[in-house]
Design a protein that fits this description.
The protein has 6 helices and 8 strands; from the N terminus they run ββααααβββαβαββ. It is of the alpha+beta class. α1 crosses α3. It comes from Marinilabilia salmonicolor.
């Protein structure tokens, strides 16, 4: 477990299958996750079993974002490291916070904590993210955490309103 005084980042467990099934099948999130079709419960369970393998095998890591609530923890989102490249010491980062828990600072806490883990524990030199030009909340989030804008992919994302640009951000370790 990776934690600070506000959030806990923990490994996926089989008990998370129902929550992941619900979140992964919310169509309004598909545009930020490049998802085109619904996931079955079987696919989610298989994913949970595979993601628990070594990060060097799967090249990805997904952690649940929990907050302490009285005598228990409540899952409010998830954070991913994807395209993990140990040779070049880099990986992509993505975060999702459940709609009712947004704008409370949890995403900022999670990304900051996860970035520190990626740099100090995994030994990454850089982490990156790709954000739709319309996702101003994510742009503000990553810029507030010293991610640097490094480029724009023109008309990269196909949406129901037409093609949108995707912005590229990265953060280089200072260690």
């Amino acid at each position: 477990m990776i934690r600070n005084d506000k959030i806990i980042l923990r490994a996926l467990e089989p008990a998370d299958a129902d929550l992941l099934y619900q979140w992964e099948n919310q169509m309004e999130l598909w545009n930020v996750s490049n998802t085109l079709t619904p996931f079955s419960r079987h696919q989610i369970v298989t994913y949970i079993n595979q993601i628990s393998l070594d990060i060097y095998q799967t090249k990805q890591l997904r952690l649940m974002i929990d907050i302490p609530k009285e005598n228990r923890q409540e899952s409010i989102g998830m954070i991913d490291l994807f395209d993990f490249d140990p040779y070049h010491s880099r990986g992509g980062i993505g975060v999702m916070i459940y709609k009712q828990e947004r704008e409370k600072g949890y995403a900022r806490e999670a990304v900051a904590l996860f970035a520190e883990y990626a740099f100090s524990h995994l030994g990454l030199h850089q982490i990156f993210c790709d954000i739709s030009e319309e996702n101003t909340a994510s742009i503000k989030l990553f810029e507030s955490l010293d991610f640097t804008f490094v480029g724009r992919k023109k008309q990269w994302l196909k949406t129901s309103e037409g093609y949108k640009d995707e912005l590229m951000y990265q953060k280089i370790s200072t260690k």
